[in-house]
Batch of 3 targets.
Target 1
Amino acid sequence: MTPRERIRKAMDFEPVDAIPWAENFYVETVSRFFSQGLPANEVMITDWKMEGYTLLNWPTFIGVDANSYFGCINFFGCVLPVDLATIPRFKQRKVGEDAKYEEYIMESGARSRIPKKGSRETTWYAMPQFYSFPVSDRNSWERYKERLNPEDLRRYPKDWDPDAYSEVFDQYQVGPTCLAMTGFYGFGAELMGIPNFNLAFYKDPELIRDMITHWEYLTIETTREAVEALRDKIDMVFWWEDMAEKHGPNISPKLYREFLLPHYKKVTAFLNKNSIRRIMMDSDGNTQPILDLVIEAGITGHWPLEVNSGMDVRLLRKRYGNKLFLSGNLDKREIAKGGQHMRNEIDSKLLPMKETGGYIVGLDHLVHVEFTVQRFKEYADYIKTKLAME
Amino acid sequence: MRLKDVLGEISTALANLEGAEKVQSLIEDALSQNIPVSEIVEKGLRPGLRQVGAKYETGEYFLAELLFAASILDEVMRFMKPKLDAQPMRKIGTILLGTVRGDMHDIGKNVFKMIAVSTGFEVNDLNVDVDPELFVQQSKQTGPDILGLSCLLTTALPEINVVIDLLRQSKIRDRVKVLIGGNAVTKEYAREVGADAAALDAVEGVDFCRGAVKS
């Protein structure tokens, strides 16, 4: 089996020759790995490109592929190139500073504070601190909506050609092909900030209804052409939400049912109609109180299943059977300790999940900077000996 | 409406998230019956808030409901401010609060702060990315009952230990209860570093603070 065939079968609860192993790396983790000996020449990707200014083709840095180096799958290795974000973006720029911080307008329009470079060692994912958001009420939402127009031609790439992309998707075999989307909670929280978005469910429910209805329209109508053209070549949907914390979901099952569920159902019906049935929700935190509704919404998979928030892949499998394929749940804190801690964590989860199928093994979040490259290599070397089915 | 009824109604309206307008109108009823502001707060609003906390703990309410309850309280407290200024409430304790160095997250900390203030604590919030020395200096200067350290990132977790060590070196560790909270903390970690408690959510944190000042 190719890695792509393997992960598709795992998501479908079909027999596999080995459990797929998937990870996502923070940019800073990889950067730190370089300083600890990760060979740049083996992970840097370059290609000949027209750089966008002239007709000249020229070797260009495309990015970094740490997944292939360590032997794990990347969910985002081959993503449908449809832009579901703010168009035009806000021009990201510095708008102020003091002795310790710089202040920026981000591309979403939010304002943030970031510690000055060199002031001390910091981690990018700890930052920035968002202190104001572009949507606060009906008027600001109406203005923002103009940047969320699905008809905008810039939502598709300059090289958009369904046949050419179809060929690329067919050839890709090192992981799943993916449609990446932002969910109804994640989008609102990103534009209003979590506290204000949550409060608006009570204080201005009509605003929430309008925002979510528009997001459904943007999601379906923006992706329609690509989804209908590539349909069965899209292996999975990666639906970012981040709608829970350690205690539970940020909104109650009651609010989820009333405000979000009908819109999820419309999007998943559209995807299903186009033969896309593997739909994975990305949410940190303890999502358990809403998982019945998530399944009712048409979502069929869940990542990353944070251990620190009480998620346990073995219990979830008992509770939900093959209604949800599961991905992640190796406690990053135990794995980063290495040695017996790492081996115990893998053995205690991977072995029982081999029995049930429908599992993609991996950490319960992105690969954090606590990992040294040596510890991550130790983890990679061990887990690869455990993936094959007996 | 009799005295006992109106205070109970205030409590129920807040606990059921019936909105600031409804709670405010019940407070007006109570004031028209010459019920002192302190009694409205102690026997109407605070029991209501405790019920909100209980509903959160049992999984009936979630973050959105906590935030809405806090916003109702904020609105009615602003309405009552002139009367409160005339009859100041006794604070039940003081909390020095902040997110540790290297961590810019503040939502959990702010929810904790809202509930703590509504419960009657005076909170001195140092914001996020706070240097350990500042926690210690402020602890010396203001003598809080509780020092609340928030931390979401596992990478910033060792900062909690740094603060507690500095408190020890400054010989003030035994003068303040240290409460840690946020996604990265665990009860086990609290024991490991010698914190007095780890709160897994804002409601549990405020419960600890109430207990700490009582003892």
Target 2
Amino acid sequence: MHKYVIRRLLLAIPVLLLSSLIVFGLMRVMPGDALIALMGESGNVGQKELAKLRKDLGLDRPYHEQYLLWLWQMVSFNPGDSIFTNEPVSLRKAIPVTLELATLAMVIGLVIAVPVGVLSATRQDKPSDYVGRIVAVSGLSIPDFWLGTLVITFSAIWVHWIPPIGYVSFWDSPWRNLQQFLLPAAVLGYRLAAATMRMTRSTVLETLREDYVRTAWAKGLAGRIVVYKHALKNALIPVVTIIGGQLGTLLAGTFVVEQIFALPGMGRLTVEAILYRDYPVVQTNVMLVAATLVTLNLIVDLTYAWLDPRIRYQ
Amino acid sequence: MSATNPRRTARRNVTRRDFLKRAGWTGAGMTALLVGADRGRASAQTAAAYPDWIPASPKPPKRGGVLTRASAWDPPVIDPRLTQSIGLFQFAGLTSSRLVRYAFPDEASATNDLTLKGDLAESWQSSPDYRTWTFKLRQGVKWHNVAPLNGRELTAADVKYCFEAYGKEGVQSFTFREIEGMETPDKHTLRVHLHTPNVLFPQNVAESVTVIFSREVLEEDGDLKKRMIGTGPYVLKEHTRKVRVVLQRNPDYYDKGRPYVDECVILSTPDAATRLAAFRTGQSDILQVSSLSEVEVARKTNPAAIVQEYKNVLAPFGLALAQDKPPFNDLRVRRAISMAIDRQKQVETVFEGHGIPGWGVPYVYYQEKMPTMAQLGPWWQYRPADAKKLLAEAGHGNGFETTLFYYEYFPQMTSQVQLVQQDLKKNLNINIKITKLDYTTYYGRYVDSKWDGMSWGFQSGHAVGLDERTYQYMHSKSTKNFFRVNDPVIDDLTTKLRQTPDRADQRAITKKIVDREFDQVLRMWMPYDAGFFLYQPHLRNMAALALRRTDGYGSPTTARLWLDK
């Protein structure tokens, strides 16, 4: 087990290095730079001044130098300064927002997905199954940006209420904070729930056809015990896999949902930084997301062993 | 809970009959939806017109309250030397003053009123040759009572320092490099010497972007990226990027009794649907929408909302051609292209019949009424047959291939670009390859002025003054000459305009500039509509003025706004 974890952690290094190269390269391939974005529509700045400003910001140095410098800054946990604010790149404010959103979305998604998936499987082809399947297929088909827009529009029209705009942290005002996060988390959670719900239904259906389940029925065990004690735990392994796979989608979803619900999370920060070519901010954000995904995938893999003791890591 | 019957787990086949039945229902549903949507659109087009001017309230103003606005913009940086972004100037005009300003809504006679008023300057006058301008500053104007200024008095030396800093570097340098030197004969007098005569200089220092910042902050911090301390009606209490800007009433503002509203809050809200929802639920007091149909949608839930049609006095966007290179350096080609574009169709379809066909210099500087299509001259009329003939005369009877790049400033712009592409293909066999770019890529390529083919060009949004709209955007030597105009007649006329003090003569010269621009098709303006404003019913003195939107570069007008609650 320990060897397996160490091997996975070592494998993460080339993955992260490759990610860093890709994000660095992509940002440099994109035309224009931060100064062009900063100047806006003024058109008043001469080439000489632009060259001076570029030099001040280190943007005139060869790419390999810029890359190595940034890499060094990353490993020494000092990712440099934002080109716009001149302040050190800090995700201190953005990370809690995205983390809260993603966690709430995950909770909402799982709370909906597992019971509805099980219900759908145990009542196959009955009205409740049809409803569950429609809900699941809709969740997979409806894009986050559209659902988010619909939710905010119809809340305003029907109940004359939308989440309060202007982020407030949980520690400053828990109630206002929850009001701000509930709808966006529900929008994100719905998509996560849809995929998980379908997988739960399929795997529970499959498990319910296993011999040991038939034996359990034959022993005269109550339906609840057969489903929850015997079938569900075994059915959950593929579900955990799909949840792991959904984490990337969940993080990508925060980019859109944070825009719609005006939450200052990592998604919004990254989108703005890309548009303004704020290289240090984009690079740091992307690397953080990459590291998070690598870690979460490892955690998901390790969870298998807990769920199924037959699994051994070599 | 029932167990699953394995037999029922077999996959159910969908028969051909089932499929057709389901497809039929889906089709019927979609048709019903589309018909419904189309009806909504048709009724919106016939909606009643809204006034373009809301007179000041006759009631005595009330003090207090909080004005909140959901805003699409965030400032990239709060240093006014580094950006002219609307994200910054939506509140910089409230924290900081300028030497001179334009009339506020409660002083203006109508939306087109461009009368200059003193802001920090009480009066100003020029030397007979218009090379020296003397500004007499108000006495007793205090900086915000925040360290390191701590409410000290503003002096002429502060303004001199600020103008010198603008001239040294940054985006304002073009305007301020016109200054040869400055002197401060006394504490409240600033004398500005220009390199060349300019009767329009006071307009240039009245632009919303020429705010006076403090010497102490720049010297202590080395830049203006962290603090914004001014002499304006509001003090910056909080600026949290991508969250909110909170402005608190300045009790020491020189205009005693003003501003009326205690606190202004700008909420960063990038999504248009969220801004609409915020207005509907009362979280935002002001909403800007692009079309009549959007006004009607908002009024369904907020029938008491006050609506103002924003006065379109110019079009900020147009088709820019690489007119210094073939084939666009041939006047016949430019004229043919202009005649092959159906602008009226764009107005009717893209802007729901509400836009203007397009011109670049605000018409208020040369005539009373909005120009008609006919007044734009022969080359701006839709005459595809004549266009084809002219293009053939220029040696391009079979058309040609070209490129066009653009950034989508607003959703309708993509439709406009595509309509131009269709018109030019259909009428002149010109094949255009369109590239849609993100803002930074577009801007970098556009202002570099080395591109070939076509671009969807722009002129800045903030400028009110005539000098900026003529000399600075059209003179061949100006760094703002994005349309690459290189016309000796225009150079002469724009320079002459700067030396002409009489208002009537200025109007005559401006008309000549505009006529020359239209005749030579130097900038091919495209239809535009600035849309509508919706205000909560308790807002007073909030009208947006031509070229000065309350929610954008015209934010200083908020100083006279009050809440009737």
Target 3
Amino acid sequence: MNGKSVQIYAGRAREFAWKLTPRRVRPLLRGALTLARSEPAVSTGVAWGLIMLARLFLGGAVGMADNFDGHRLMCQLGVAPHPIPASQPLWAYLTPRYDSYTWYGESCSAGGSGQPYLSTEYFPLLLAKLLTGFFGLPGALDLRMLGIIFALCVAAAIGWTVSELPGPMWARVLIASGIGLAVADSAVAPYFISPFSEPAAVLGMLLLIPALLRLLGRERVRVRDLVLVAAVAAWTIGAKTQMASLLLVVVPVLLLRPSRRLIRHRGVSRARRIPGRIAVRIPASPLPHIPTLQLRRRLRRRLRPGLPLSLRLWLPRRLPGNRIARREAERARRFLRWAAVRTPALVICVLLVGGTVEFQRHQPRWLNEITRYDDVFTSILGHSPNVQGDLRALHLPADFAPAAGSSIVADNSAATLPDYPRFVHRATFGDILAFYATHPLRLFGVADRGLAGVAATRPSYLGNYQASSDAAPYEQDCRLCIASAAFTLTEPFRWVVIPGLWIGAAIGGVRLARRRSAPARARGVGVLLASVGVATIAQFWTVMLTEGDSDLEKHMLPVVLGTMLLGPLVFAAFAAADQIRPASAPDAEHDVPLPRGTADEEAADAPADPSIALEPA
Amino acid sequence: MPRYCRALVAALGVLSLSGCGSLNLEHVGMGVGSYKTTWTVGSCHRLDQFVETDPMYASDTSPPVPCGEPHQSETYADVAITGAVARQGERPSPLWLESSLRGACSAARMADFLGAEPPDITRDIIVLQIIPSVPEWRAGVRRVRCDALIGPRTMETLATISRSLRDIVRSPAARFRQCRLGYTEVPCDGLHTAELVYPAVKFSAVELTRDGNYLLGKVKNVCRQEAAAYVGAPLDRRPDLILEPELPGDYPHRDSTTGYCWVAQTNGRPVTGSVRRTGTRGAA
């Protein structure tokens, strides 16, 4: 079915719906439709905001019960859970109300470690606390206010996505609505009314979509778009330590395309179209303003165009006579040019990576110890056919064998053994990775457990409803459980369907991104699709190799959401591919097709004819 | 200043603020106060939340409260940390510490503090070990604060007390004594039909193979003396009370290899309060 036939069918359906609408309602509906047509992004966002609010609150609020993980964040806001009846099981129901409480010292720290638990989720929670007071709700913080905040944020993200997506408006609205449907699903939405850090990560993932589309909508990226993507990525990584895997895709994407010039040359005023489909910005002079005319001419002769002044001074005047040396020099020159046109992106990447490393460094040692424990004793030894052999491979004492399969707080935990300090000092993540490198077949077991966790979509031990509702203890919300049901159905075929989706999306995205004939925005959708596919795979393995089997369904939330997002993004890729026309005229502002056979950055950076570039416009 | 210079300055600013400039984030996102533990024996502490007494949250730097105000724990001793764990420069993880410091605060010492004597048995008072905070550990503090923590304490509810726990077992203090209503163990300040007297009667493996009459005889012999000491008068002089021995393996403790001495109401009616040191009071 092509776009035209879809439009015909949509028109017929519209006519039919219009006939069914009562006459009194028609003017109102006409007004709403006019508004929706004039501001499709805003109206789609508003619609999804209302859907999210209805989904979260109609028929009683749904959220996630706290399994004590919430304490480390909520205590930072000076609140404690409102007491519940003694007969009520703690994790059976959502308890949205929190009262003021003064937490002293390390009673407010990550698991009593004496170190803080840092997450960007703190800020929405702080806002929720302020709004709770503003609206005069009982208690110091009501998590239902957090639900409202996130519903509005989701609305903004979806509206923004509509405005950044390429293609016809109906397709953009449909794709953004697909994303909205994924977020409103029962596997994701209940987290918005919870004291966990996951909602900040979910919001960050949603905002990254339009931010990346905006960045990749141009051949030459703008610094402000780079900063925007980096800020959203920093927010997402700051939500949960496991989200650091996002760097694997964000850094390459930031460095994918050259930046616009930072130095505004005197006399530069407009872009000029050059015959032969190459549009370049023609500067009056490639050099900054230099007072002495003689010096300026000398520099102009000496320096090559297309590079910032600071880098041009480092280039050799003539290439060496030796061919190899000349090739190396040429390679170095290319690299310098590549780096020079990406200076802002490089600076931002250094900041982002440095900030992530620093953030990881500030994570509590105690949580790190728990993670390593789970990796070794639960994931490796708990599923080991030869516990003693594995202990030897991990360079750990044999008396740890009885602790195989235990959690750190179990009665048979290795922490109760006299040799435990040896584990704390010796077992590192490097050792765990080295173990898997020498026992690669064990990774299949790890992957299988992980895929089962993804198929489960959410933890079953945490109730979604309030105790005041009629719901049974631990009852799971299913107001919109399309994805949850789909994942459950794929569970027997999890080895084919789930990795197939990830890999297929990554390959499809790369193929679209490599189509030179496609405009920048269409290729941007390909890059986004490939990025989400790769980021989901990276996230899956990050969770499995760090958190292990512990609380797997909860930790897999970004993987579940990433997989769900692939559906609308694949559709977006088809819509973008449909836009590719061999002889399409490029858009001067967004799409500047580059000549074949040259690297993007070099072609885009260097003018077609240097003599033109050196002369004033 | 050219644009890129401004961008560079801004970037460096962000870099320094983002933590690369050794910004101290140690107490950001943590609790308030001085991070100094109160080590005074006899000081009372308010630990209103379940997590505050979780073994993972092993330090307590909240200011002490007067023992006449509601509180949950009271310090009865302060002991030094020794051995390999004390040589760690950074405070080890809570579980490692818990494992290394197991038994550092003796229950016997707590019993002395509470004023418990041999026939006494207490319930809902447990030992809570408090370790130095991270800054204190770095400063070289190696002590454990031993607190008596009252119960019942669950994830949903917690108990408080508004008096000192010192010598509390010497008073009737029925809420800290073990009773039962039918087969359900309850504190003695609630309705109950029998009260437990300690110590328990131990049996060897050989003895456990012998017939029920032998077991009953041994428990009765021991319990008669213990119950008399506990009540403050022989049970012959308390017709309202009767000895109710519990043999090894009796319901509800099927796996038990120990005998217990219960002093029950003769008429079987539920009562409240403890019979400890009541002497011949209440005798018909």
